[in-house]
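Look over this record before class:
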Amino acid sequence: TDEKKDNNDAEAAAPANAKSPEEEEAELKAAVKEIAGALAEGAAKTFVANEFEKDCDTNFHIDFIQSFANLRARNYAIEEVDFLQAKLKAGRIIPAIATATAMATGFVCLELLKVLGNKELKAYRNTFSNLALPLFSQAEPAPCEKMVS
């Protein structure tokens, strides 16, 4: 039947080493627990800049870019890229990666550290930036509207 055919197609499209949703959830919970533990120990207080080098395959920079590009591709149902494609494209768009994308990612990571550290609402910031003007502004978010049911 059509249902069996759809199921067989889905199974054939899944990678051989695919993890079950339960395994993925357990890995995610373990990673969050590890990050929260590191924050509690104060490990997040020291940051070290790491220079981006696309031509060195041993530093995993291109692997990271390829992984996140493929996550985005899956979210938007577009074609994924292999290692070489990621390396070639990263070599052409490094100025973009080094400016707006890196800035936005940095601000998201700062807010994520606040979430994992269970900070109060007054510690969070909404950040807006326009590199063409240049304009950079931050605002404190308003608390959520409380609903009584």
In short: The first strand starts at residue 126 and ends at 130. The mean pLDDT is 81. Residues 94-116 form the longest helix (23 residues). Strands lie at 126-130, 135-139.
